[in-house]
Amino acid sequence: MAAGQRKARTALFGGTFDPIHNAHLEIARAAVSRFDLRKVLFVPAANPPHKSDIALAPYEDRVRMAELACAGEPAFEVSRIEEAIGPDPQQRSYSINTIEKLLTAGMGDLSFLIGADAFAEIRTWYRWEDVVRLVEFIVVDRPGAVYQIPPGATVHPLGGLQIPISSSAIRQLLAAADKSVPVPAAVLRYIRAQGLYR
After folding, report:
1. Which residues face 10 on adjacent strands?
2. Cα(198)–Cα(190) distance, rounded to whole angstroms?
3. What is the rounded distance in angstroms from the CA atom of residue 136 to the CA atom of residue 142?
4. Residue 61 φ/ψ region, left for φ over 0, alpha for ψ in the -120 to 50 degree band, beta for the rest
């Protein structure tokens, strides 16, 4: 059930951000505007449990690209809270661990900014009941994505956004040296300089 009055002023926006792109920023801006958020905290995942079969760009590069993309956006902040997890593939970046770390650090009430397709799989997450208990959700509508709200979850739909491309499609464009890649200019320069996604 959706709550009528929100209390969380900070939204956690987790993901691989491999790479971060314009649609990520559009989502975050819309969330700030529609839900009166003070901050969107971008949290690049160190070792995402649901993408263990995908070769990611190094964590440091993904964090740096997020920092470049968020520069000049007063409500956006990039967190390295998962940096301590390190490169060990056995140590997964579970959302509940990140949430608990942020709450322990005094972050206050949190929303979790998430796509409808990912939210549809919430019951497969590690300790998902605790995730539902500790945060509200801002769920970004995606074409064709259908989800059920777990008992006790507070969900605020975020619709009306055009999200025409995914990170995987962007990686394909980059590999093909396409000239029109929908990422911030500073991110594209970084990708080219570091030789990522060739």
Report:
1. 39, 110
2. 13
3. 19
4. alpha
Residue type, 99: I
Locate 138 and state its tokens: 């801002």
User: The domain 10-162: what is its CATH number?
Assistant: 3.40.50.620
- Cβ neighbourhood burial of 63 (10 Å; 0-12, 13-18, 19+): buried
Q: Which residues pair with 11 in a beta bridge?
A: 40, 111
pLDDT (tens digit per residue) in 19-73: 999 999 999 999 999 999 999 999 999 887 765 556 689 999 999 999 999 999 9
Residues 124-168 have pLDDT tens digits of: 999 999 999 999 999 999 888 899 999 999 999 999 997 777 888
The two three-digit tokens of residue 67, written as one number = 């920092």
Supply 177's token pair: 């040296």
Amino acid at residue number 149: I
Ordered DSSP codes for 99-143: HHHHHHTT--SEEEEEEHHHHTTGGGSTTHHHHHHHEEEEEE--T
